[in-house]
Amino acid sequence: MLPAHSYPKLRAYSHLAGHYGGPWQNQQFEFPLFTGPIVATTNCVLIPWESYKDRLFTTRVTAVPGGTRLKTSDFSSVIEMAKTSPPLVERKVRESTIGFSHNVILGIAEKVVSAVKSGEIRHFYLIGGCDGAEVGRNYFTKAAAAAPNESLILTLGCGKYRIRNHDYGTVAGLPRLLDMGQCNDAYGAIQVAVGLAKAFGCGVNDLPLTIILSWFEQKAVAVLLTLLALGVKGIRVGPVAPAFITPNVFKVLQEKFDLKLTEAEPPAELFQLAS
Ligand code: SF4
Q1: Ligand 1 atom nearest 220 alpha carbon
Q2: Per-residue pLDDT tens over the stretch 182-241
Q3: Pocket mutation for ligand 1, best pick of 2, 24, 134 (most atoms within 8 Å of C-beta)
Q4: CATH code for 20-84?
Q5: 44 in ligand 1 pocket by Cβ < 6 Å?
Q6: How would you write 43-62 as a 3-class SS string?
Q7: Identical fold at 20-84 and 102-271?
Q8: 157 ligand 1 Cβ < 6 A
Q9: pTM
């Protein structure tokens, strides 16, 4: 429910009390502990366990064995179940700053541009995409933690859950960690990059911008292909190469786009700022 808090019409309801859960791969551990109905809207839903399959609903093209597929926009069965479900024990972990969609960031572009010109902000990191359970994904956590204080960190998608458990402080009066939303908001990240390039009168590849993409499935690959189609160079992708990147394909992408795979540890060069 994290992104839901960014929508004024949803936020207007007191029912939207907070957020529950982490990245997609935790759902089979987290959903059994959730007491109410769950509506899954995207392909990242997993086949439910016995303990919660009666409470799992899916919409649109999403369907899983054991879950109930809602074929229309009639949510009355979900609402009825919610009304009779036992309350969820409130567990306040922390507060999060959210809602930095591309409109919001471009709305403060003037402030960001003048902070870059004055040297207060010296770099941008876009770290995000899908999350997964494999070893090596703490690369993204480490990269965000090591980003210099004079930088802004933009996140999106499930990858944010590896990054947001840390206080990054502020720079130029802005929170250093700006969450842009869901994986689909990669479009917004591209808009921000294009908007900043326009403001500085340069190309996206000339911006002080490092893109580190965590991939797991097709959406993150679509984001990568979109960035490559736009001619964006120097992207790091990991923790392993998507399956379509065979050694030969990787060689071509390396030559044409300076595409890199994430290393065992984020290298020091990632955090060296241009003077
Ligand atoms: S970021 Fe990836 S894993 Fe997470 S919901 Fe989006 S597509 Fe699924």
Answers
A1: 2
A2: 877 778 888 888 888 998 899 999 999 999 998 877 777 888 888 899 899 999 998 888
A3: 24
A4: 3.40.50.2030
A5: yes
A6: CCCCCCCHHHHCCEEEECCC
A7: yes
A8: yes
A9: 0.89
